């Protein structure tokens, strides 16, 4: 059975961040303990009901991709056994599949997005201004159509409650420096291209995905946070893909579709979600983990 954890509480460790999904603790030696909980956010609001096992599935998917892509871009994982860092009274089984020990990095303050297909905010921008983050695209592209070439479309990381904003490469370069911006762009596209090809062999299209990067004391770049999960990516079953419509995906669409039937202003507090929607969402995460990583959580 997957475990369920809405909020971690590790006494004796210093919690430095409670994000929408992850609880982050500081460890000695410039390290972090990152715990993926079962919190589900939709429209940037954390919902009151957990999705059992979601944090475990997210962590397992990320760990899988971090391992597979380490030859392309180094990542934040340290592979320290959790028993070495968890307080001695911790229920280890609750954390063993959802927590990782990582290098503590200085975040590059952008969302590094790669897009291979025209959907979401990319499709919106294309329809209104014909370009995306300053990248001119050919005329006549349709919704969900594959782009001639994957593109890097950074966005600013918004403060809590705000939505992210697409920016051009030049705006990003002005903010973080040209050299770092180029490194982030190249790393983003390299991982995306490799992963998209890998997933395609398993019948899954990775339409787009978001990475976060950080640098160490020496300025060396690492990919951090999560990688190629249903929360950070649009995965489409290839056999249901059709240009012109928004394909069904393995992400939170299931929950979003339910929420759209409610009268709710998309502000906190979020509404309760019925058991069948929770089960359906959990099954989507499990399917992504199985199809991509070949992993089934007992
Ligand atoms: N190796 C790392 N070093 C430093 N920070 C990291 C590292 N890996 C992840 N993080 C940060 O830890 C946090 C993870 O929390 P989570 O994913 O729940 O946040 P979020 O809700 O997506 O965003 P926010 O941080 O704005 O709440 C993120 O802020 C992420 O940038
Ligand atoms: Mg996050």
Automatic annotation (TrEMBL):
SUPFAM superfamilies, per the entry: SAICAR synthase-like
Signal peptide segment: none
Reaction catalysis annotation: 5-amino-1-(5-phospho-D-ribosyl)imidazole-4-carboxylate + L-aspartate + ATP = (2S)-2-[5-amino-1-(5-phospho-beta-D-ribosyl)imidazole-4-carboxamido]succinate + ADP + phosphate + 2 H(+)
Pfam families assigned: SAICAR_synt (PF01259)
EC annotation from Swiss-Prot or TrEMBL: 6.3.2.6
InterPro entries according to UniProt: SAICAR_synt/ADE2_N, SAICAR_synth, SAICAR_synthetase_CS
Pathway field: Purine metabolism; IMP biosynthesis via de novo pathway; 5-amino-1-(5-phospho-D-ribosyl)imidazole-4-carboxamide from 5-amino-1-(5-phospho-D-ribosyl)imidazole-4-carboxylate: step 1/2
Domain called SAICAR synthetase/ADE2 N-terminal: residue spans: 16-268
Keyword field: ATP-binding, Ligase, Nucleotide-binding, Purine biosynthesis
Similarity annotation: Belongs to the SAICAR synthetase family.
Protein name per Swiss-Prot or TrEMBL: Phosphoribosylaminoimidazole-succinocarboxamide synthase
Name of the encoding gene: purC
